[in-house]
Design a protein that fits this description.
eight-stranded mixed sheet, eight-stranded parallel sheet, about 25% strand, TIM Barrel, 2 domains, about 425 residues, 12 helices, globular, alpha/beta, Urease, subunit C, domain 1
């Protein structure tokens, strides 16, 4: 089937057509023409004002499969990811059991040859994600794990963290950590500040993240290796990374919602705003925006953490932290585009995560495989229970009209098109 994407602006720094408005013809999963002609096609997508980029990549999606499929399974996450613009996702190992054996990795990746949304395994650093005993990381690497992390849990054990950095050097593996001092955050419900005091909730101070970031950087300097820190939230964390990047091989990411929301939004005790790291204050959000613009922050991820009703629809201090954000990710980017230009934003969700994981980089060029995302940054749409493809409903945007929507994704000879096209 021939599909013509007509008049989209191409944003791909590796493409000779970067920042140019062109017609792109696809045939059987490949790019066969790029130019100004109106090529013959079975389907024409009128894409004036839209942005065409390499397919989006999410560096750290939580999926409950295996063992916690009532939260999210591979089928539902693939549908939500495709609708949100992602052609590849790297999934966290916090399942039941954790992703800690070769069979666990192969369970996630075995159908990638036939999937539109390809799934990559982030394998556990420690057994059962307890932080006490290392997994067989060489075996997991050979089975296809693309990086190593304890996912939503921090690697709290200093010696384990150090040995992980050293062990992974054998095959230039990447260690990903969620930096958090679990003792400083013990029983914490939200950011520690004026709002937490007014609401009477135990706070999670910035220093709980910043102490861990500082420790990680010191250990990286000592042991060497490759380190990525996930879901940063505080201004000082970003400043620490900015300074460290001058001499250390460290990268980092933030969740797309983190610079857009703040702790004032918890005034109504809506558990859909409860996340870890917590929503912080405006000065932290401003620092995240600065970090995106100056390159300190390498990657923007969805921060997708689905939960069932029994884990979210209860008293605030008993609710689990997390937001679903695959389908609403494009709307997040559109909001961020008021502060950060589109080429910068899209590079952080296309090329940067793949470079960190040493994966093949898709390119928009003649005869290349079609691994593409088409975004309409002006399209408004209603995100409701009918359009939500995740099993979970824990989104602060459910029921709202949003601006910014992905209208088409292409990968692995497959595609999904918006119904309006």
């Amino acid at each position: 089937m021939k599909i013509l994407i007509q008049g989209a602006k191409i944003l791909d720094p590796n493409s000779p057509f970067h920042k140019k408005v062109k017609n792109v013809l696809l045939n059987n999963g490949r790019i066969v023409e790029i130019g100004d002609k109106n090529y013959q096609a079975d389907k024409v997508i009128k894409a004036e004002g839209m942005l065409l980029s390499p397919g989006w990549f999410d560096l750290g999606t939580f999926v409950g499969d295996p063992g916690l499929e009532h939260k999210e399974d591979l089928e539902s996450v693939s549908k939500a990811a495709a609708a949100g613009g992602f052609t590849e996702i790297a999934v966290l190992p916090n399942t039941s059991p954790c992703i800690q054996t070769k069979n666990d990795v192969k369970y996630l990746t075995k159908n990638n040859d036939s999937r539109l949304v390809q799934i990559h395994a982030l394998a556990s650093v420690t057994r059962d994600n307890k932080g006490e005993e290392l997994t067989e990381m060489i075996d997991l690497h050979e089975a296809g794990a693309v990086a190593f992390t304890d996912g939503l849990k921090t690697i709290w054990h200093t010696d384990i963290f150090l040995k992980s950095l050293q062990y992974l050097q054998k095959f230039k593996g990447v260690l990903i950590d969620h930096p958090e001092d679990i003792w400083l955050n013990m029983f914490g419900q939200m950011h520690e500040g004026i709002q937490s005091t007014l609401l009477g909730l135990k706070g999670m101070p910035r220093i709980a993240e910043e102490v861990a970031v500082h420790r990680n950087l010191d250990l990286l300097h000592y042991a060497e290796g490759r380190l990525h820190m996930a879901r940063l939230s505080s201004a000082r964390s970003i400043n620490l990374i900015r300074s460290a990047k001058k001499k250390l091989p460290v990268t980092c990411d933030i969740a797309a919602y983190q610079p857009l929301l703040d702790d004032s939004m918890l005034a109504g005790f809506d558990t859909n705003y409860k996340v870890n790291p917590p929503l912080r204050e405006k000065r932290d959000n401003d620092a995240l925006i600065k970090g995106l613009n100056d390159g300190t922050i390498d990657v923007i991820c969805s921060g997708h953490v689905p939960h069932d009703e029994e884990s979210k629809n209860l008293e605030f201090d008993h609710a689990d932290p997390g937001i679903i954000n695959l389908q609403t990710f494009a709307a997040n980017l559109t909001s961020l585009s008021k502060h950060v230009d589109w080429p910068t934003l899209l590079e952080k969700v296309t090329l940067a995560p793949r470079k960190i994981l040493d994966l093949e980089l898709p390119v928009i060029d003649l005869e290349a495989k079609a691994n593409l995302t088409l975004l309409d940054p002006t399209r408004t749409w209603v995100y409701d229970e009918k359009s939500n493809l995740s099993k979970a409903k824990n989104s602060p945007w459910l029921g709202q009209t949003l601006t910014g929507k992905v209208v088409a994704v292409f990968n692995n000879t497959k595609h999904v098109l918006d119904n309006s096209l």
